[in-house]
Write a structure and sequence with these properties.
The chain is α/β, with parallel strands linked by helices. The protein contains 9 helices and 7 strands. α1 crosses α9, α2 packs parallel to α3 and α3 runs parallel beside α6. The relative contact order is 0.16. The structure holds NADPH dihydro-nicotinamide-adenine-dinucleotide phosphate (NDP). The site of NADPH dihydro-nicotinamide-adenine-dinucleotide phosphate (NDP) has 29 residues, from α1, β2 and α7.
């Protein structure tokens, strides 16, 4: 039987109570990992993973979360920086509050997640980070100047971290999903959804599990051991 080598590895997923994050948590549990996930509002129903309420915009809460995971599950091998929000509007109408909320969650949230975990991964000389970017960070999107800025930044962050981390045996990669059927996409008006599907060569939205497989691959110490600083696009050929 072939294995991804994730059995017994401790992996933290931010925003793991629903959507793409919940699919990542399920996939990693299926693959034998010991999984902790964070949430802001309410835990996932029926998950056997360790759920911790911790807002990614709060560095103190994220430090406590890291300590709790280590105390309850053991040293952390993998981190998936998944938690994210959008507050879409045409740029002239975009409020500073909506700008700040998206930067705080999607970009500062990555820093708050990784800051307490990375030094220990370097000490142990093993680990893998996956940051969830987006098709919007790659090619831009109308109404998403704030969101796209954070998702492009996630790629720059990941590539830089990969360069620094390689000598410590730690890898960092990004996954850039196209449009995936979660609450975030369900909120798009039907007419706009139809227009988007017509643009996607696969002629459908992606499923959260299709992103989860890509994340599991990039976390795998066996399947992707020499892959770092990469962006894996999961988008049904929705490239440009
Ligand atoms: P959802 O809106 O379905 O879920 C968002 C998740 O992020 C929830 O678990 C939510 O927790 C969590 N979250 C939001 N803010 C915070 C916070 N401040 N602290 C902790 N957790 C928080 O989104 P998706 O599953 O669709 O998106 C997941 C990631 O994938 C995001 O980074 C998103 O930008 C990215 N992405 C999504 C795409 C899509 O088409 N769906 C496409 C490309 C990228 P809670 O429920 O507690 O609020």
């Amino acid at each position: 039987m072939v294995s991804l080598g994730l059995e017994g590895k401790v992996i933290v997923v931010t925003g793991g109570n629903r959507g793409i994050g919940a699919a990542i948590v399920s996939k990693l549990l299926e693959l034998g990992a010991k999984v902790a996930y964070t949430y802001r509002s309410s835990p996932a129903p029926d998950s056997s993973a360790l759920g911790i309420q911790a807002d990614v915009t709060d560095p103190v809460a994220m430090e406590k979360m890291a300590a709790q995971v280590e105390a309850e599950l053991g040293p952390v091998y993998g981190v998936v920086a998944n938690a994210g929000i959008n507050r879409d509007n045409f740029y002239p109408k975009l409020t500073t509050d909506d700008w700040d909320a998206v930067i705080d969650t999607n970009l500062k949230g990555i820093n708050n997640t990784l800051k307490p975990l990375i030094p220990k991964m370097y000490e142990r000389k093993e680990g893998a980070v996956v940051c969830i970017s987006s098709i919007s960070g790659d090619r831009g999107n109308i109404g998403q100047t704030n969101y796209a800025a954070t998702k492009a930044a996630a790629i720059g962050f990941t590539k830089s971290l990969a360069l620094e981390a390689a000598r410590y045996g730690v890898r960092a990669n990004a996954v850039a999903p196209g449009f995936i059927e979660t609450d975030m996409v369900k909120a798009i008006p039907d007419k706009v959804k139809e227009r988007i599907i017509a643009e996607i060569p696969a002629r459908r939205f992606g499923q959260p599990e299709e992103v989860a497989w890509a994340v599991a691959f990039l976390l795998s110490p066996t399947a992707s051991s020499y892959i770092t600083g990469e962006v894996l696009r999961v988008n049904g050929a929705h490239h440009t």
